[in-house]
Write a structure and sequence with these properties.
- With 371 residues, the chain is mainly beta.
- Helices cover 1% and strands 46% of the residues.
- It is built from 1 helix and 34 strands.
- The strands form 9 sheets. It has a 4-stranded antiparallel sheet. The chain has a 4-stranded antiparallel sheet with strand order 2-3-4-7, with no helix packed on it. The chain has a 4-stranded antiparallel sheet with strand order 8-9-10-11, with no helix packed on it.
- It is globular and about 70 Å long.
- The N and C termini lie far apart (46 Å).
């Protein structure tokens, strides 16, 4: 009789719903009411995953003699909602549960909960190169080949400002809707989003920018570079610094509002700094030693929306959740395709994950998981 070995069951096996897509996952985005996770792939495929779960972790937990056990799922997750988009790229949440998708030919589309295209946004003959949307103020920003276009949802008014070469490749609106950052191949430009839309800050960059994100309080802006680290900008004081000690590209940056800290991929451990003592004059100032250093690059980071936790995805497929400022970390997945995207839902109960093998997953944590 042949003896069969049962493979070790990981937390990922117990907590995640996983879908296989035709190519690597490029972008992930939860919608505004945490009912759907939108995903785009490198081949342009766009699909939606339902967050509603027929077998939530709480339903599979049993307590026997004080010992808590969670059982594996019995069924398969609900199938993805496929869209007709085949050239989709960047995603962001819109209002009413919809998602904004920028296509390769420059169309900005609104996708409803059913995966149907409900509208084309800021439509004219000019292709859109980059965009961002501020849900708190209803401000939409679109970068066209030679101009910046802003539209306010509350009034439908449109304003434009001329842009000079080089063409901006990314746009990011501050959380209060008052400022917009644009990055091109060699520069970072910050403008007022109202009034004359003038530029009030221009910073030369030593390498191509590949990520861009504002802090929740709108004081700080972080811009990740393909080589050479990331640029940190203090809007209040006018100071800036390049944190350069990174062996890899800074594909993702994220801010923790609860810990007042910034985190970056591109190192052999989770790299983070406390903004209570910002590293403007010395890159070691405020550095947070957390998680375990190793020999594999961190490719993605995502801070929990309100707890002092950060998720990290590695080039070998490992996913961990670390306590900010502590060496403690929890391994969710041991191995797999290189992690290309991580994002928390607004309620902090779900972690969206995408990897280079086309796996997209929603990892759902029981209510008592993070104490």
């Amino acid at each position: 009789m042949n003896q069969q070995t049962t493979p070790n069951v990981t937390l990922f096996d117990l907590l995640a719903r996983n879908w296989k897509q035709p190519s690597a996952i490029k972008h992930l985005c939860f919608n505004d009411d945490d009912t759907l996770l939108a995903m785009s792939c490198f081949d342009g495929t766009v699909a939606l995953a339902r967050l509603a779960d027929n077998e939530p972790p709480e339903s599979r937990i049993t307590i026997d003699n004080g010992r808590t056990t969670i059982h594996s799922r019995e069924g398969r997750p609900s199938p993805l909602i496929n869209t007709r988009i085949r050239d989709g790229g960047r995603l962001t949440a819109f209002d009413g549960g919809e998602t904004l998708v920028l296509t390769a030919k420059g169309d900005l589309l609104r996708i409803n909960r059913s995966g149907e295209i409900s509208a084309k946004v800021l439509a004219d003959k000019s292709p859109i190169i980059a965009f961002d949307y501020c849900r708190s103020t209803g401000l939409m920003a679109a970068v066209l080949p030679n101009r910046l276009r802003l539209q306010w949802k509350r009034t439908d008014s449109i304003r434009e400002a001329a842009l000079s070469d080089p063409i901006s490749e990314m746009a990011s609106i501050s959380n209060d809707g008052c400022m917009i950052a644009l990055v091109a191949a060699t520069s970072l430009n910050i403008r007022h989003a109202e009034g004359d839309l003038r530029s009030f800050r221009e910073i030369a960059l030593s390498a191509r920018p590949i990520s861009l994100i504002w802090s929740a309080d709108n004081r700080w802006l972080a811009c990740g570079l393909e080589t050479g680290g990331f640029c940190l900008v203090d809007i209040a004081s006018g100071g800036d610094a390049i944190l350069s000690d990174f062996p890899g590209p800074i594909r993702t940056l994220d801010w923790s509002q609860s810990a007042n800290a910034v985190f970056a991929s591109g190192a052999y451990r989770i790299a983070g700094w406390s903004m209570d003592t910002p590293p403007l004059s010395n890159s070691s100032t405020g550095a947070l030693a957390m998680g375990h250093p190793g020999f594999v690059m961190v490719d993605a980071v995502a801070s929990h929306p309100f707890k002092k936790l950060v998720a990290a995805g590695y080039a070998n497929g490992k996913i961990v959740i670390a306590k900010i400022g502590s060496p403690d970390e929890l391994v969710i997945r041991d191995t797999g395709g290189p992690v290309t995207a991580l994002q928390w839902s607004a309620d902090g109960k779900q972690l969206g994950m995408g990897d280079a093998l086309g796996n997209a997953a929603i990892i759902t944590f029981p209510n008592q998981f993070f104490k």
